[in-house]
Design brief:
By secondary structure, the chain is α/β, with parallel strands linked by helices. It has helices spanning 17-30, 45-55, 64-88, 99-109, 114-124, 140-145, 159-175, 189-204, and strands at 5-11, 35-39, 92-96, 132-137, 180-184. It has a five-stranded parallel beta sheet, sandwiched between helices.
Length: 206
């Protein structure tokens, strides 16, 4: 049985990653791949309940440490229930956010110790590392302006916070260029789709 693949889609608010993950899914389905989509936090019953708490604007008193632990808890359950088994079965997983989100949002954004986040992450993910991470890069102010619905608790944070998040993603890409690929979101959807498909095809050809 072929080894499964985990491809993660990352980016700041309004970067268009959720649109691109759907396009990538359709592309892989057309090639007859056994592929499915997950989102973080969420994906399974327990993790979706945690998601509701994390994104609820009524959770404004939540401390940074609590926030970090909750994201890790949601991730640990998703890995346990779905990701590990699916990879063992040779499936391709497209995941809307993963550990990198916690590194940039809670680490670069909130100031939680990044080495500590990585240690916690190794436990929560059972050592699972994405085979490919696509980061959709957009100016923080522009990205936030693209959100037309009511903003959630994280989206409502300051522009300075979101700038730190964006910078965090760029730093991750510099540190792990083989895994993390930055794609400018200042292009048409079709242009971005072409780039995404190229990266996925390169991964499949390995």
């Amino acid at each position: 049985m072929e080894k499964g693949l985990l491809i993660t889609f990352e980016g700041a608010e309004g970067s268009g990653k959720s649109t691109q993950i759907l396009s990538a899914y359709e592309f892989l389905k057309q090639t007859k791949k056994n592929v499915f989509i997950l989102r973080e936090p969420g994906g399974v019953k327990i993790s979706e309940k945690i998601r509701d708490i994390l994104l609820d604007v009524a959770s404004e008193e939540m401390g940074h440490e609590c926030e970090t632990f909750l994201y890790m808890a949601a991730r640990a359950q998703l890995v346990e229930e779905v990701i590990k088994p699916a990879l063992n079965e040779g499936k391709i997983i497209l995941c809307d956010r993963f550990l990198d989100s916690t590194i940039v949002y809670q680490g670069y954004g909130n100031g939680i110790d990044i080495p500590l986040i990585k240690k916690m992450g190794a436990l929560a993910t059972k050592g699972v590392v994405p085979d490919l991470t696509l980061v959709f890069d957009v100016d923080a102010e522009e990205g936030l302006s693209r959100i037309k619905r009511a903003k959630d608790r994280i989206e409502k944070r300051s522009l300075d916070y979101h700038n730190r998040v964006r910078q965090g993603y760029l730093e991750l890409a510099k540190a792990e260029p083989q895994r993390v690929k930055v794609i400018s979101a200042h292009q048409t959807k079709e242009e971005i789709q072409t780039i995404v498909r190229r990266y996925i095809e390169e991964l499949l050809d390995k």
